[in-house]
Amino acid sequence: MKRTILRQSGAAAAVLALSVTLAACGSDDESSNSAGEDTSSESEAPTSEEPAADDAGAQTFGEGCSLIPDDGAGSFNGMATEPVATAASGNPLLKTLVTAVGEAGLVDTLNSAEALTVFAPTDDAFAKIPEKDLNAVLADKELLTQILTGHVVAGQLGPDELSGELETLAGNTIEVKGSDESFTVADEEANVLCGNIPTSNATVYVIDTVLMP
């Protein structure tokens, strides 16, 4: 009888010890799982060092930049996502230029180019040309193409590499003078009003005068 009681007591003690051990293991597993989940959450959290998605105008310069819309297709952020001809079509300063590019059939040519620098005359720049003369130019596709390609240079040039003699896609040479945030184009004929505007395939410098051949 005593031996039976001892056996039962020993069995009970073993069961109790096993239960405590399992409970401890379960607690450790839960802690491990919890720690794993926390680590996963931390790895998925965005870091503050990621670049902002709305800083396309951060490197632009010039008084004319204040005339660029804050948002929409014609804003710096909107233009940055489109090829240059499409980007210009949303800019309220470049309506006449966009019309001229369309008349010359250069939209696809400019949009498909790998890298360009474009000196883009404003509507006010085109308004300096007598209306009769401007209409004649718009009606002459060959002359219009020559004029427009005379505003375009191969490669995307930043302000630090803009000064000097540049060969245009029309085959002529224009000289850019200046540095930092002050530039003139073609023997100081035109001033850069807003510079270093990014598009998906070009860098744009808005100017106040049409460069005539």
From TrEMBL:
Bias-annotated ranges (Low complexity): 42-56
Chain residue ranges for the region called Disordered: 26-64
InterPro entries cross-referenced by the UniProt entry: Adhesion/Biosynth-related, FAS1_dom_sf, FAS1_domain
SMART domains found in the cross-reference section: FAS1
Coiled coil (residue ranges): none
A single cellular component GO annotation: extracellular matrix
Cited SUPFAM superfamilies: FAS1 domain
GO molecular function terms noted in the UniProt entry: cell adhesion molecule binding
PROSITE patterns named in the record: FAS1, PROKAR_LIPOPROTEIN
A Pfam family that the UniProt record links to this protein: Fasciclin
Domain FAS1: 81-211
BP-aspect Gene Ontology terms: cell adhesion; extracellular matrix organization
Protein name: Fasciclin domain-containing protein
